Amino acid sequence: MPRPSQRLLSPEIITEAAMRMVDLSGDFTMPGLAERLKVRPSSLYNHVSGRAEIIELMRARMMAGIVVADPDGKWSETVAGLAREYRRNYAEHPRLIPLFTAHTVQSGVAFGLYNALAQAFSDGGFTPEEILHAITTVDSFVLGSALDLAAPEVVWATAPEANEAMLAALATSGPNPGRADAAFEFGLRTLIAGLVAQAPFEP
Protein backbone atom coordinates (compact mmCIF):
# COMPACT_ATOMS: atom_id res chain seq x y z
CA MET A 1 0.00 0.00 0.00
CA PRO A 2 1.45 3.42 -0.90
CA ARG A 3 2.28 5.80 1.94
CA PRO A 4 -0.07 8.80 2.37
CA SER A 5 0.99 11.95 0.54
CA GLN A 6 0.95 13.99 3.74
CA ARG A 7 1.28 13.34 7.44
CA LEU A 8 -1.95 12.50 9.20
CA LEU A 9 -0.84 14.31 12.36
CA SER A 10 1.49 17.13 13.33
CA PRO A 11 1.60 19.67 16.15
CA GLU A 12 0.06 22.21 13.77
CA ILE A 13 -2.85 19.91 12.82
CA ILE A 14 -3.48 19.05 16.46
CA THR A 15 -3.39 22.72 17.46
CA GLU A 16 -5.84 23.71 14.72
CA ALA A 17 -8.27 20.95 15.73
CA ALA A 18 -8.05 21.93 19.40
CA MET A 19 -8.76 25.58 18.56
CA ARG A 20 -11.85 24.58 16.60
CA MET A 21 -13.09 22.51 19.53
CA VAL A 22 -12.61 25.42 21.93
CA ASP A 23 -14.36 27.78 19.52
CA LEU A 24 -17.36 25.44 19.52
CA SER A 25 -17.56 24.28 23.13
CA GLY A 26 -15.11 26.35 25.18
CA ASP A 27 -12.71 23.50 25.95
CA PHE A 28 -11.13 20.33 24.61
CA THR A 29 -10.06 16.94 25.91
CA MET A 30 -7.40 14.63 24.58
CA PRO A 31 -9.92 11.79 23.86
CA GLY A 32 -12.26 14.28 22.18
CA LEU A 33 -9.41 15.68 20.12
CA ALA A 34 -8.37 12.20 19.03
CA GLU A 35 -11.95 11.43 18.02
CA ARG A 36 -12.16 14.64 16.00
CA LEU A 37 -8.93 13.77 14.19
CA LYS A 38 -10.01 10.12 13.80
CA VAL A 39 -6.92 8.74 15.49
CA ARG A 40 -6.16 6.86 18.67
CA PRO A 41 -5.48 9.07 21.72
CA SER A 42 -2.03 7.51 22.01
CA SER A 43 -1.18 8.82 18.53
CA LEU A 44 -1.45 12.40 19.75
CA TYR A 45 1.39 11.83 22.21
CA ASN A 46 3.77 11.09 19.35
CA HIS A 47 3.53 14.80 18.49
CA VAL A 48 2.68 16.64 21.70
CA SER A 49 3.34 15.93 25.36
CA GLY A 50 -0.23 16.58 26.43
CA ARG A 51 -2.94 19.13 27.03
CA ALA A 52 -0.63 21.77 28.54
CA GLU A 53 1.60 21.80 25.49
CA ILE A 54 -1.38 22.12 23.17
CA ILE A 55 -2.58 25.14 25.14
CA GLU A 56 0.84 26.76 24.78
CA LEU A 57 0.86 25.96 21.06
CA MET A 58 -2.51 27.69 20.76
CA ARG A 59 -1.19 30.67 22.71
CA ALA A 60 1.86 30.89 20.46
CA ARG A 61 -0.34 30.78 17.39
CA MET A 62 -2.55 33.57 18.71
CA MET A 63 0.34 35.77 19.82
CA ALA A 64 2.17 35.26 16.53
CA GLY A 65 -0.60 37.22 14.84
CA ILE A 66 0.02 40.32 16.95
CA VAL A 67 1.92 43.00 15.07
CA VAL A 68 4.42 44.75 17.32
CA ALA A 69 5.47 47.90 15.47
CA ASP A 70 8.61 49.87 16.27
CA PRO A 71 7.73 52.64 18.74
CA ASP A 72 7.80 56.03 17.08
CA GLY A 73 5.86 58.21 19.50
CA LYS A 74 4.96 58.63 23.14
CA TRP A 75 5.11 55.60 25.40
CA SER A 76 1.40 55.97 26.21
CA GLU A 77 0.52 55.85 22.49
CA THR A 78 2.64 52.71 22.14
CA VAL A 79 0.76 51.03 24.98
CA ALA A 80 -2.62 52.00 23.50
CA GLY A 81 -1.61 50.70 20.08
CA LEU A 82 -0.38 47.40 21.51
CA ALA A 83 -3.59 46.98 23.50
CA ARG A 84 -5.72 47.48 20.38
CA GLU A 85 -3.61 45.02 18.40
CA TYR A 86 -3.68 42.51 21.26
CA ARG A 87 -7.48 42.64 21.47
CA ARG A 88 -7.95 42.56 17.70
CA ASN A 89 -6.05 39.30 17.47
CA TYR A 90 -7.69 37.59 20.44
CA ALA A 91 -11.14 38.71 19.31
CA GLU A 92 -11.05 35.96 16.66
CA HIS A 93 -11.02 33.22 19.33
CA PRO A 94 -12.31 34.71 22.61
CA ARG A 95 -13.21 31.34 24.10
CA LEU A 96 -9.53 30.45 24.28
CA ILE A 97 -8.95 33.13 26.91
CA PRO A 98 -10.09 31.16 30.01
CA LEU A 99 -7.73 28.34 29.02
CA PHE A 100 -4.80 30.71 28.61
CA THR A 101 -5.34 32.52 31.91
CA ALA A 102 -5.28 29.19 33.78
CA HIS A 103 -1.79 28.29 32.48
CA THR A 104 1.63 29.88 33.00
CA VAL A 105 2.85 31.80 29.96
CA GLN A 106 5.78 29.85 28.49
CA SER A 107 5.58 30.59 24.78
CA GLY A 108 8.53 32.58 23.53
CA VAL A 109 6.29 34.16 20.89
CA ALA A 110 4.22 35.80 23.63
CA PHE A 111 7.20 37.78 24.84
CA GLY A 112 7.25 39.87 21.68
CA LEU A 113 4.20 41.72 23.00
CA TYR A 114 5.27 41.67 26.64
CA ASN A 115 8.75 42.95 25.82
CA ALA A 116 7.24 45.85 23.89
CA LEU A 117 4.90 46.70 26.76
CA ALA A 118 7.73 46.47 29.29
CA GLN A 119 9.90 48.79 27.21
CA ALA A 120 7.08 51.31 26.82
CA PHE A 121 6.45 51.42 30.54
CA SER A 122 10.18 51.64 31.21
CA ASP A 123 10.29 54.63 28.86
CA GLY A 124 7.57 56.16 31.01
CA GLY A 125 9.77 55.85 34.07
CA PHE A 126 7.94 53.06 35.87
CA THR A 127 9.95 50.88 38.26
CA PRO A 128 10.36 47.15 37.46
CA GLU A 129 7.67 46.25 40.00
CA GLU A 130 5.32 48.87 38.57
CA ILE A 131 6.02 47.61 35.05
CA LEU A 132 4.86 44.14 36.02
CA HIS A 133 1.73 45.58 37.64
CA ALA A 134 1.05 47.72 34.56
CA ILE A 135 1.46 44.78 32.16
CA THR A 136 -0.87 42.68 34.33
CA THR A 137 -3.43 45.49 34.29
CA VAL A 138 -3.28 45.82 30.50
CA ASP A 139 -3.44 42.03 30.14
CA SER A 140 -6.53 41.79 32.35
CA PHE A 141 -8.31 44.64 30.59
CA VAL A 142 -7.59 43.45 27.06
CA LEU A 143 -8.43 39.81 27.69
CA GLY A 144 -11.64 40.79 29.47
CA SER A 145 -12.56 43.07 26.57
CA ALA A 146 -11.86 40.32 24.04
CA LEU A 147 -13.94 37.87 26.08
CA ASP A 148 -16.76 40.43 26.06
CA LEU A 149 -16.98 39.90 22.29
CA ALA A 150 -18.34 36.41 22.99
CA ALA A 151 -21.16 37.82 25.14
CA PRO A 152 -24.77 37.66 23.93
CA GLU A 153 -26.07 40.58 21.91
CA VAL A 154 -28.15 41.71 24.90
CA VAL A 155 -25.83 41.46 27.89
CA TRP A 156 -28.13 42.67 30.70
CA ALA A 157 -31.80 41.85 31.08
CA THR A 158 -34.03 44.57 32.51
CA ALA A 159 -34.74 43.30 36.01
CA PRO A 160 -36.98 44.71 38.74
CA GLU A 161 -33.90 44.92 40.96
CA ALA A 162 -32.28 47.52 38.67
CA ASN A 163 -32.24 51.03 40.13
CA GLU A 164 -32.95 54.22 38.20
CA ALA A 165 -29.32 54.83 37.25
CA MET A 166 -28.95 51.29 35.89
CA LEU A 167 -32.27 51.46 34.05
CA ALA A 168 -31.20 54.71 32.40
CA ALA A 169 -27.94 53.10 31.35
CA LEU A 170 -29.71 50.03 29.98
CA ALA A 171 -32.02 52.24 27.97
CA THR A 172 -29.02 53.41 25.94
CA SER A 173 -27.90 49.94 24.94
CA GLY A 174 -30.38 47.64 23.24
CA PRO A 175 -29.08 45.31 20.50
CA ASN A 176 -25.90 47.14 19.54
CA PRO A 177 -23.17 45.34 17.58
CA GLY A 178 -20.74 48.16 18.33
CA ARG A 179 -21.22 48.08 22.10
CA ALA A 180 -18.15 45.98 22.87
CA ASP A 181 -15.86 48.11 20.68
CA ALA A 182 -17.17 51.35 22.19
CA ALA A 183 -16.76 49.97 25.71
CA PHE A 184 -13.21 48.89 24.91
CA GLU A 185 -12.21 52.33 23.63
CA PHE A 186 -13.80 54.02 26.65
CA GLY A 187 -11.97 51.67 28.99
CA LEU A 188 -8.69 52.06 27.13
CA ARG A 189 -8.85 55.86 27.35
CA THR A 190 -9.56 55.57 31.07
CA LEU A 191 -6.75 53.06 31.61
CA ILE A 192 -4.19 55.10 29.69
CA ALA A 193 -5.19 58.27 31.54
CA GLY A 194 -4.66 56.48 34.86
CA LEU A 195 -1.25 55.17 33.79
CA VAL A 196 -0.18 58.60 32.53
CA ALA A 197 -1.23 60.15 35.86
CA GLN A 198 1.12 57.75 37.70
CA ALA A 199 4.04 57.90 35.27
CA PRO A 200 7.18 59.72 36.43
CA PHE A 201 7.97 60.81 32.86
CA GLU A 202 5.97 62.63 30.21
CA PRO A 203 3.49 60.43 28.30
UniProtKB/TrEMBL annotation:
Pfam (any one)? TetR_C_1
Q: Which UniProt keywords apply?
A: Repressor, Transcription, Transcription regulation
Pinpoint the Tetracycline repressor TetR C-terminal domain residues: 70-198
> Which Gene Ontology BP annotations are present?
negative regulation of DNA-templated transcription; response to antibiotic
SUPFAM superfamilies per record:
Homeodomain-like, Tetracyclin repressor-like, C-terminal domain
Superkingdom of origin organism: Bacteria
InterPro entries per record? Homeodomain-like_sf, Repressor_TetR_C, Tet_transcr_reg_TetR, Tet_transcr_reg_TetR-rel_C_sf
Q: What protein does this entry describe?
A: TetR/AcrR family transcriptional regulator C-terminal domain-containing protein
Q: What is the lineage of its organism?
A: Bacteria, Bacillati, Actinomycetota, Actinomycetes, Mycobacteriales
